[in-house]
Amino acid sequence: MQITRSSVATMIPPGEWFTGAVFVDTIAAPSEGSRLSAHNVHFAPGARAAWHTHPNGQTIYITEGVGLAQRRGGPIEVIRPGDRVFFEPGEEHWHGAAPDRFMVHVAMAEVDDEGNSVAWGEPVTDEEYGQQPE
Ligand code: MN
User: Fold this and answer.
1) How does pLDDT run across 93-132, given as a tens digit for each residue?
2) Which CATH number fits domain 18-129: 3.40.47.10, 2.60.40.10, 2.40.50.140, 2.60.120.10?
3) Average pLDDT over residues 19-42
4) 6 alpha carbon – ligand 1 mean position (Å)
5) Strand, coil or helix: 21
6) Which of 19, 40, 38 lies closest to 120, judged by CA?
7) What are the residue boundaries of the structural domains of the chain, listed by start?
8) CA within 20 to 30 Å of 16's CA: 24, 34, 53, 117, which one?
9) What is the share, in percent, of the chain residues with pLDDT greater than 90?
10) Which of 53, 31, 56, 24 has its CA nearest to residue 122?
11) What separation in Å is there between the alpha carbon of 117 and the centre of ligand 1?
């Protein structure tokens, strides 16, 4: 039996980036020769990211619960385990949990030349979040 121990503490991200309770476990951090930034993210019911973009795009892969995702100008979409969502480079969007369910996803993005994987915007308001999913 071989166990590889987890040694990196779970992070609580800054409040201006997320609404509600969100917990982030790092899977991969960019380093010389690798641009991959990957995290496992737990969202409590009602929690969601602020509006944001990714310079090189982002893939999320839902592993648990029920989530919501929306691109600017589009409908709110329900996302479930096994679903994957690709956000185009520069496409403004948010993702988070459904109002009454936890959601867990793996998020993968490649950083730009400055090491950034995301550019943050305004919080998703309760009014925006409360729109009926399609
Ligand atoms: Mn994103």
Assistant:
1) 999 999 999 999 999 999 999 999 999 999 999 999 999 7
2) 2.60.120.10
3) 95
4) 25
5) coil
6) 19
7) 18-129
8) 34
9) 91
10) 53
11) 9
How far, in Å, are 10, 22, 48 from residue 95 at the CA level?
A: 19, 12, 6
Say how many Å lie between the CA of residue 52 and the centre of ligand 1.
6
pLDDT for 7 equals 77
- Spatial contact of 62 and 82, defined as CB atoms under 8 Å apart: yes
H or E stretch including 86?
Answer: strand 84-87
Judged by DSSP in three states, 54 sits in coil
Query: If you measure from the C-alpha of residue 7 to the centroid of ligand 1, how many angstroms do you get, rounded to a whole number?
Result: 25
10 vs 90: CA distance, rounded Å:
28
Cα 2 to middle of ligand 1, angstroms: 34
Q: What is the pLDDT of residue 104?
A: 98
Q: Spell 61-83 as b/e; 16+ CB within 10 A means b.
A: bbeebbbbbbbeeeebeebeeee
